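User: what does the whole thing look like in 3D?
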Amino acid sequence: MSDLPTAQHRPITARDGCQDPVLLNDWHVVGYASDFAVGSIYPVRLLERDLIVWRSADGKVHCWEDLCIHRGARLSKGWIKNDQVVCPYHGWQYDHAGRCTLMPAAPDEKPMRKALAFPYAVEERYGFVWVCLGEATDALPPFSEWADERFLKVHSGPYVYDANGYRAVENFIDASHFPFVHAGLNGRMEQPDRLKPYSVEETASGLCSSEVEVFQPVGDARGQPVMAFYTYKTFRPLVAYFSKRTQKADAQGNIVADHSDTFTTLFTVQAIDATHSIVRVCAALDVQPYPAPEKVRERADIIYNQDRDIVETQRPERIPTELRYELHHRTDLMGQRYRSWLRGKGVTYGVI
Ligand code: FES
Ligand SMILES: [Fe+2]
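Assistant: Here's the predicted 3D structure for the full assembly of 352 residues, as C-alpha coordinates:
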Protein backbone atom coordinates (compact mmCIF):
# COMPACT_ATOMS: atom_id res chain seq x y z
CA MET A 1 0.00 0.00 0.00
CA SER A 2 3.05 2.24 0.18
CA ASP A 3 2.46 3.45 -3.38
CA LEU A 4 -0.92 4.89 -2.35
CA PRO A 5 -0.95 8.58 -1.45
CA THR A 6 -2.20 7.85 2.08
CA ALA A 7 -1.09 11.02 3.86
CA GLN A 8 -2.95 13.35 1.51
CA HIS A 9 -5.64 10.85 0.68
CA ARG A 10 -7.99 11.49 3.61
CA PRO A 11 -11.69 10.65 3.61
CA ILE A 12 -14.06 13.54 4.21
CA THR A 13 -15.46 11.55 7.14
CA ALA A 14 -12.11 11.87 8.93
CA ARG A 15 -13.08 15.45 9.75
CA ASP A 16 -15.62 14.07 12.23
CA GLY A 17 -14.98 12.29 15.49
CA CYS A 18 -11.66 11.91 17.24
CA GLN A 19 -8.93 14.32 16.14
CA ASP A 20 -6.49 13.34 18.88
CA PRO A 21 -3.16 12.39 17.26
CA VAL A 22 -2.13 10.28 20.26
CA LEU A 23 -5.05 7.95 19.61
CA LEU A 24 -5.12 8.24 15.83
CA ASN A 25 -1.46 7.19 15.66
CA ASP A 26 -1.95 4.29 18.07
CA TRP A 27 -2.98 0.68 17.43
CA HIS A 28 -6.51 -0.35 18.40
CA VAL A 29 -8.09 -3.79 18.56
CA VAL A 30 -11.24 -3.95 16.41
CA GLY A 31 -11.99 -7.68 16.75
CA TYR A 32 -10.68 -11.18 17.26
CA ALA A 33 -8.85 -12.63 14.27
CA SER A 34 -11.51 -15.35 14.16
CA ASP A 35 -14.25 -12.74 13.67
CA PHE A 36 -13.24 -12.08 10.08
CA ALA A 37 -13.86 -14.81 7.51
CA VAL A 38 -12.93 -14.68 3.83
CA GLY A 39 -15.82 -13.58 1.61
CA SER A 40 -17.65 -11.14 3.90
CA ILE A 41 -17.39 -7.45 4.76
CA TYR A 42 -17.59 -6.53 8.46
CA PRO A 43 -18.50 -3.03 9.66
CA VAL A 44 -16.64 -1.82 12.77
CA ARG A 45 -16.68 1.51 14.57
CA LEU A 46 -13.58 3.03 16.15
CA LEU A 47 -13.19 6.51 17.64
CA GLU A 48 -16.45 7.60 15.95
CA ARG A 49 -15.22 6.45 12.56
CA ASP A 50 -17.04 3.84 10.51
CA LEU A 51 -14.72 1.27 8.99
CA ILE A 52 -14.89 -2.03 7.18
CA VAL A 53 -12.75 -5.06 7.81
CA TRP A 54 -12.46 -7.84 5.28
CA ARG A 55 -10.16 -10.80 4.72
CA SER A 56 -8.99 -11.57 1.21
CA ALA A 57 -8.47 -15.12 -0.08
CA ASP A 58 -4.73 -14.92 0.66
CA GLY A 59 -5.60 -14.62 4.36
CA LYS A 60 -4.68 -10.92 4.73
CA VAL A 61 -6.96 -8.66 6.72
CA HIS A 62 -7.81 -5.22 5.34
CA CYS A 63 -9.37 -2.25 7.08
CA TRP A 64 -10.75 0.69 5.11
CA GLU A 65 -12.99 3.64 5.75
CA ASP A 66 -16.60 2.59 5.26
CA LEU A 67 -16.89 4.97 2.35
CA CYS A 68 -16.85 4.82 -1.42
CA ILE A 69 -15.02 7.80 -2.95
CA HIS A 70 -17.52 7.93 -5.80
CA ARG A 71 -20.69 9.11 -4.06
CA GLY A 72 -20.05 8.24 -0.46
CA ALA A 73 -22.04 5.03 -0.17
CA ARG A 74 -21.13 2.61 2.59
CA LEU A 75 -18.91 -0.22 1.40
CA SER A 76 -20.14 -2.27 4.36
CA LYS A 77 -23.44 -2.63 2.51
CA GLY A 78 -21.60 -4.08 -0.46
CA TRP A 79 -20.19 -7.55 -1.02
CA ILE A 80 -17.12 -9.48 -2.09
CA LYS A 81 -16.83 -10.63 -5.69
CA ASN A 82 -13.71 -12.20 -7.19
CA ASP A 83 -11.84 -11.35 -3.97
CA GLN A 84 -12.63 -7.64 -4.42
CA VAL A 85 -14.96 -5.27 -2.58
CA VAL A 86 -18.01 -4.22 -4.59
CA CYS A 87 -19.73 -0.95 -3.71
CA PRO A 88 -23.51 -1.50 -3.44
CA TYR A 89 -24.43 1.75 -5.22
CA HIS A 90 -22.88 1.76 -8.71
CA GLY A 91 -20.89 -1.44 -8.40
CA TRP A 92 -17.37 -0.05 -8.45
CA GLN A 93 -14.89 -2.77 -7.48
CA TYR A 94 -11.82 -2.32 -5.32
CA ASP A 95 -8.83 -4.68 -5.11
CA HIS A 96 -6.73 -5.60 -2.04
CA ALA A 97 -4.78 -2.37 -2.20
CA GLY A 98 -8.01 -0.34 -2.43
CA ARG A 99 -7.63 0.50 -6.13
CA CYS A 100 -10.79 0.69 -8.18
CA THR A 101 -10.48 -1.93 -10.93
CA LEU A 102 -13.90 -1.63 -12.52
CA MET A 103 -16.59 1.00 -13.05
CA PRO A 104 -19.45 -1.09 -14.45
CA ALA A 105 -21.05 1.93 -16.21
CA ALA A 106 -17.84 2.29 -18.23
CA PRO A 107 -16.31 -1.18 -18.18
CA ASP A 108 -13.78 -0.48 -20.92
CA GLU A 109 -12.27 2.54 -19.22
CA LYS A 110 -9.40 2.34 -16.80
CA PRO A 111 -10.68 3.81 -13.51
CA MET A 112 -9.29 7.23 -12.59
CA ARG A 113 -6.06 7.30 -10.59
CA LYS A 114 -7.92 8.84 -7.67
CA ALA A 115 -10.54 6.10 -7.60
CA LEU A 116 -9.25 4.61 -4.36
CA ALA A 117 -10.65 3.27 -1.13
CA PHE A 118 -9.19 4.60 2.12
CA PRO A 119 -7.02 1.82 3.60
CA TYR A 120 -5.51 1.82 7.10
CA ALA A 121 -2.63 -0.09 8.58
CA VAL A 122 -3.68 -3.48 9.96
CA GLU A 123 -1.82 -6.05 12.05
CA GLU A 124 -3.07 -9.42 13.14
CA ARG A 125 -1.41 -10.48 16.37
CA TYR A 126 -2.21 -12.27 19.65
CA GLY A 127 -5.45 -13.46 18.08
CA PHE A 128 -6.64 -9.87 17.63
CA VAL A 129 -6.93 -7.54 14.64
CA TRP A 130 -5.27 -4.16 15.32
CA VAL A 131 -5.84 -1.01 13.28
CA CYS A 132 -4.06 2.34 13.15
CA LEU A 133 -6.00 5.26 11.67
CA GLY A 134 -2.98 7.55 11.42
CA GLU A 135 0.76 7.01 11.21
CA ALA A 136 1.74 4.31 13.68
CA THR A 137 4.32 5.79 16.02
CA ASP A 138 4.98 2.56 17.94
CA ALA A 139 5.05 -1.17 17.40
CA LEU A 140 2.20 -3.22 18.85
CA PRO A 141 2.19 -3.65 22.63
CA PRO A 142 4.24 -6.60 23.91
CA PHE A 143 2.69 -9.89 25.04
CA SER A 144 5.61 -12.29 25.33
CA GLU A 145 3.47 -15.13 26.73
CA TRP A 146 1.75 -15.41 23.34
CA ALA A 147 4.80 -17.16 21.87
CA ASP A 148 5.62 -19.09 25.04
CA GLU A 149 4.30 -22.65 24.92
CA ARG A 150 4.18 -22.99 28.68
CA PHE A 151 1.23 -20.61 28.70
CA LEU A 152 -2.31 -21.68 27.89
CA LYS A 153 -3.91 -18.81 25.94
CA VAL A 154 -7.63 -18.10 26.31
CA HIS A 155 -9.50 -15.21 24.71
CA SER A 156 -12.67 -13.93 26.28
CA GLY A 157 -15.23 -11.26 25.57
CA PRO A 158 -16.24 -9.16 23.80
CA TYR A 159 -17.57 -7.21 26.77
CA VAL A 160 -19.56 -4.20 25.62
CA TYR A 161 -19.21 -1.38 28.15
CA ASP A 162 -21.61 1.53 27.99
CA ALA A 163 -18.69 3.50 29.38
CA ASN A 164 -15.52 5.41 28.67
CA GLY A 165 -12.56 3.25 27.62
CA TYR A 166 -10.13 4.74 30.12
CA ARG A 167 -12.65 4.02 32.88
CA ALA A 168 -12.52 0.39 31.79
CA VAL A 169 -8.70 0.43 31.91
CA GLU A 170 -8.49 2.09 35.32
CA ASN A 171 -10.84 -0.56 36.68
CA PHE A 172 -8.60 -3.28 35.27
CA ILE A 173 -5.56 -1.87 37.09
CA ASP A 174 -7.40 -1.35 40.40
CA ALA A 175 -6.96 -3.95 43.16
CA SER A 176 -8.97 -2.42 46.00
CA HIS A 177 -12.36 -3.15 44.39
CA PHE A 178 -11.88 -6.92 44.46
CA PRO A 179 -13.53 -7.62 47.85
CA PHE A 180 -16.65 -5.68 46.84
CA VAL A 181 -17.18 -6.06 43.10
CA HIS A 182 -15.85 -9.63 42.99
CA ALA A 183 -16.83 -10.74 46.51
CA GLY A 184 -16.26 -14.46 47.06
CA LEU A 185 -13.97 -14.75 44.03
CA ASN A 186 -11.17 -12.17 43.99
CA GLY A 187 -11.67 -11.01 47.58
CA ARG A 188 -13.79 -11.21 50.74
CA MET A 189 -16.26 -8.43 51.46
CA GLU A 190 -16.16 -9.16 55.21
CA GLN A 191 -12.37 -9.12 55.29
CA PRO A 192 -11.09 -6.74 52.64
CA ASP A 193 -7.34 -6.83 52.06
CA ARG A 194 -5.25 -4.13 53.65
CA LEU A 195 -3.20 -3.03 50.67
CA LYS A 196 0.46 -2.59 51.47
CA PRO A 197 2.23 0.34 49.86
CA TYR A 198 3.36 -0.36 46.31
CA SER A 199 5.28 1.65 43.77
CA VAL A 200 4.70 2.59 40.14
CA GLU A 201 7.44 3.44 37.70
CA GLU A 202 7.26 4.83 34.21
CA THR A 203 9.24 2.77 31.72
CA ALA A 204 9.78 3.04 27.97
CA SER A 205 6.80 0.73 27.43
CA GLY A 206 4.48 2.44 29.93
CA LEU A 207 3.62 2.32 33.62
CA CYS A 208 4.59 -0.68 35.73
CA SER A 209 3.63 -1.37 39.34
CA SER A 210 5.47 -3.37 41.95
CA GLU A 211 3.59 -6.43 43.24
CA VAL A 212 0.22 -5.75 44.84
CA GLU A 213 -0.70 -8.54 47.25
CA VAL A 214 -4.28 -9.74 47.79
CA PHE A 215 -6.00 -12.88 49.03
CA GLN A 216 -8.41 -14.52 46.59
CA PRO A 217 -10.78 -17.23 47.85
CA VAL A 218 -11.31 -18.44 44.26
CA GLY A 219 -8.25 -17.07 42.55
CA ASP A 220 -8.77 -18.51 39.07
CA ALA A 221 -10.61 -21.17 37.11
CA ARG A 222 -8.97 -23.92 39.17
CA GLY A 223 -11.31 -22.85 41.97
CA GLN A 224 -8.84 -22.74 44.85
CA PRO A 225 -7.76 -20.07 47.35
CA VAL A 226 -4.55 -18.25 46.48
CA MET A 227 -2.41 -15.39 47.59
CA ALA A 228 -2.10 -13.28 44.46
CA PHE A 229 0.66 -10.80 43.64
CA TYR A 230 -0.34 -8.48 40.80
CA THR A 231 2.10 -6.57 38.60
CA TYR A 232 0.08 -4.06 36.59
CA LYS A 233 1.20 -2.37 33.39
CA THR A 234 -0.31 0.16 31.04
CA PHE A 235 1.22 -0.15 27.60
CA ARG A 236 -1.02 2.32 25.79
CA PRO A 237 -3.88 4.61 26.72
CA LEU A 238 -6.30 1.76 25.91
CA VAL A 239 -4.16 -1.36 26.37
CA ALA A 240 -3.18 -2.71 29.77
CA TYR A 241 -1.79 -5.90 31.23
CA PHE A 242 -1.29 -7.72 34.47
CA SER A 243 0.87 -10.57 35.50
CA LYS A 244 -0.49 -12.32 38.58
CA ARG A 245 1.82 -14.59 40.51
CA THR A 246 -0.14 -16.93 42.74
CA GLN A 247 0.73 -19.23 45.61
CA LYS A 248 -1.70 -21.77 47.01
CA ALA A 249 -3.27 -20.66 50.27
CA ASP A 250 -5.72 -22.02 52.81
CA ALA A 251 -9.17 -20.51 53.33
CA GLN A 252 -7.75 -18.09 55.90
CA GLY A 253 -5.19 -16.71 53.48
CA ASN A 254 -2.09 -18.50 54.74
CA ILE A 255 0.30 -19.51 51.98
CA VAL A 256 0.67 -23.30 51.94
CA ALA A 257 3.06 -23.87 49.00
CA ASP A 258 6.36 -22.40 47.87
CA HIS A 259 5.58 -22.87 44.20
CA SER A 260 4.28 -19.86 42.25
CA ASP A 261 1.98 -20.06 39.23
CA THR A 262 1.56 -17.24 36.71
CA PHE A 263 -1.64 -15.88 35.22
CA THR A 264 -1.35 -12.92 32.85
CA THR A 265 -3.91 -10.93 30.90
CA LEU A 266 -3.66 -8.56 27.96
CA PHE A 267 -6.60 -6.17 28.21
CA THR A 268 -7.64 -4.22 25.11
CA VAL A 269 -10.28 -1.56 24.64
CA GLN A 270 -11.89 -0.57 21.35
CA ALA A 271 -13.15 2.96 21.96
CA ILE A 272 -16.27 3.21 19.82
CA ASP A 273 -16.65 6.79 21.01
CA ALA A 274 -15.87 8.67 24.22
CA THR A 275 -18.48 6.79 26.27
CA HIS A 276 -18.87 3.39 24.56
CA SER A 277 -16.24 0.67 24.48
CA ILE A 278 -15.63 -2.95 23.67
CA VAL A 279 -13.26 -4.87 25.94
CA ARG A 280 -11.46 -7.95 24.64
CA VAL A 281 -8.93 -9.87 26.67
CA CYS A 282 -6.46 -12.66 26.22
CA ALA A 283 -5.40 -14.56 29.31
CA ALA A 284 -2.19 -16.59 29.36
CA LEU A 285 -1.84 -19.17 32.13
CA ASP A 286 1.18 -21.06 33.33
CA VAL A 287 -0.58 -22.81 36.20
CA GLN A 288 -0.80 -26.40 37.39
CA PRO A 289 -3.08 -28.05 36.63
CA TYR A 290 -4.23 -26.21 33.51
CA PRO A 291 -7.95 -25.46 33.76
CA ALA A 292 -10.23 -26.16 30.79
CA PRO A 293 -10.35 -23.10 28.48
CA GLU A 294 -14.18 -22.98 28.84
CA LYS A 295 -13.75 -22.62 32.61
CA VAL A 296 -11.32 -19.73 32.13
CA ARG A 297 -13.82 -18.02 29.84
CA GLU A 298 -16.74 -18.66 32.19
CA ARG A 299 -14.87 -17.05 35.04
CA ALA A 300 -13.75 -14.11 32.87
CA ASP A 301 -17.38 -13.54 31.84
CA ILE A 302 -18.41 -13.30 35.49
CA ILE A 303 -15.54 -11.00 36.47
CA TYR A 304 -15.73 -8.60 33.52
CA ASN A 305 -19.51 -8.35 33.67
CA GLN A 306 -19.23 -7.45 37.37
CA ASP A 307 -16.65 -4.83 36.42
CA ARG A 308 -18.80 -3.47 33.60
CA ASP A 309 -21.81 -3.05 35.90
CA ILE A 310 -19.86 -0.74 38.20
CA VAL A 311 -17.81 1.08 35.54
CA GLU A 312 -21.00 2.05 33.69
CA THR A 313 -22.15 3.93 36.82
CA GLN A 314 -19.08 6.16 37.14
CA ARG A 315 -19.39 9.89 36.67
CA PRO A 316 -18.16 11.99 35.07
CA GLU A 317 -18.25 9.52 32.22
CA ARG A 318 -15.11 10.96 30.65
CA ILE A 319 -12.21 10.21 32.97
CA PRO A 320 -10.76 13.27 34.70
CA THR A 321 -7.02 13.42 34.10
CA GLU A 322 -6.72 16.36 36.47
CA LEU A 323 -6.40 14.80 39.88
CA ARG A 324 -8.29 17.56 41.72
CA TYR A 325 -11.67 16.40 40.35
CA GLU A 326 -11.59 13.18 42.37
CA LEU A 327 -10.05 11.93 45.57
CA HIS A 328 -6.99 9.74 45.38
CA HIS A 329 -5.59 7.54 48.11
CA ARG A 330 -2.17 5.88 48.18
CA THR A 331 -3.90 2.53 47.51
CA ASP A 332 -5.07 4.00 44.16
CA LEU A 333 -1.56 4.84 43.05
CA MET A 334 -1.79 2.94 39.76
CA GLY A 335 -5.04 4.66 38.73
CA GLN A 336 -3.68 8.00 39.81
CA ARG A 337 -0.49 7.55 37.82
CA TYR A 338 -2.54 6.34 34.84
CA ARG A 339 -4.44 9.65 34.80
CA SER A 340 -1.26 11.70 34.99
CA TRP A 341 0.38 9.51 32.35
CA LEU A 342 -2.53 10.09 29.95
CA ARG A 343 -2.24 13.79 30.62
CA GLY A 344 1.52 13.70 30.04
CA LYS A 345 1.02 11.94 26.72
CA GLY A 346 -1.27 14.76 25.63
CA VAL A 347 -4.42 12.64 25.37
CA THR A 348 -7.38 14.96 24.81
CA TYR A 349 -10.11 12.71 23.44
CA GLY A 350 -12.51 11.17 25.96
CA VAL A 351 -11.00 12.89 29.00
CA ILE A 352 -11.83 15.98 31.00
S1 FES B 1 -21.02 5.35 -4.52
FE1 FES B 1 -19.81 3.57 -4.70
S2 FES B 1 -19.95 3.07 -6.77
FE2 FES B 1 -21.05 4.91 -6.65
FE1 LIG C 1 -12.57 -6.06 38.57
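In plain terms: The chain has five helices and 18 strands. The helical segments are 21-24, 165-172, 178-181, 293-311, 333-345.
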